[in-house]
Each structure stands twice: as structure tokens, then as C-alpha cells.
Amino acid sequence: MKKLALLFAGLSLFLATGCNDDGDTTMEYPLVGVWQPLKEVVTTVKTGADPVSDLITYTDCQKESRWRFNTEASGKRTDWDFIGATPQCAIQSDRNFTYTYEKSAKTVVIKYQGTVEPSNAKVVTLNDVTLNLSVREETQDPAVYKTRTYTFKRIPQ
Fold it and tell me: What does DSSP assign to residue 8?
């Protein structure tokens, strides 16, 4: 009987420590970092009609733009574009923001300084190099809304 009890105890110990099955092996990547926008897709949805999507491919100048998400739930968005009478690539706008990121729901609420309405976004893709961020925009017509989906590349700091 003692041998059976020892065998059972040894088997239980083996099962408890012998296997290392962590279940979900997907790695979670942080939103924190510097992101370079590459393109965006604007989808217009009208009640009773099929959605219409437009692809906006950024120029090399626009790709100089950066969205920085800091660990302190603050950030900075710097947009570059061609400006001036003789167009030159330069900073078009430089805005600070605060944000909250809910990982489980994959939602981001961005509040730009001086803006009353927050920008509600959904993280579609987030990995070590890519962020797809979908931002819903309300229009004056309640039967119409737009979704702007940005594709970013992570920039090493």
C-alpha cells in the first residue's frame, strides 16, 4: 500500500511540475512607442447603402509624420506635408494628446489638447512592427459616418 501511495504521489508531482503548458502563446506588444503612418483607408457608411472605401497612400513627405505614445498615457502627433507657395516638406501640425488604452477591448481614446470631443479608436492590428488603428468619425448627417483606418510602422527609438 505504501508503494502505491508513493507511486501516486510521484505521479501527481510529475504532472504538476512536468508540463509547462501556458496555454496562449501569443505575445502581447505595447502601444507605447513611435509610429510612422504609411497609409490610411477612409470608409464612408451610409444607412441603406454599401460602404465606400478610399485608399490614401502617403507621400514620402507625409511619411515623415510621427505618432508618439508615451508610457505616461500622453503622446504627441507631428504631421508633415508639403506647405507654402513653393511647396516644401515641413511640419504641418504638432499636437499633444492624452490617451487611455484598454488592452482587453482594444480601444484607444485620444484627447487632443483644446479639443472637447475625444477621438475613439479601435486597435485592429498591433504587433512588433505594425499598428492598424481605426478611428470612427461622426458627420453632421446621423445616417452617415466615416471610419479612418491608419496603418503605421513602428520606428526604433
Answer: H
CA nearest to 65, candidates 97, 88, 36, 33: 36
Closest Cα to residue 108, out of 117, 98, 121?
121
Cβ neighbours of 78 (radius 10 Å): 14
Instruction: Evaluate if pTM is beyond 0.70.
Output: yes
Tens of pLDDT, residues 22-45: 544 455 688 999 999 999 999 999
Residue 56, amino acid? I
Instruction: For residue 17, name the pLDDT band (cuts at 50, 70, 90).
Output: very low
3-state secondary structure string, 27-65? CCCCCCEEEEEEEEEEEEEECCCCCEEEEEECCCCHHHC
State which amino acid sits at residue 156: P
Q: Report d(CA 47, CA 24) in Å as an integer.
A: 39
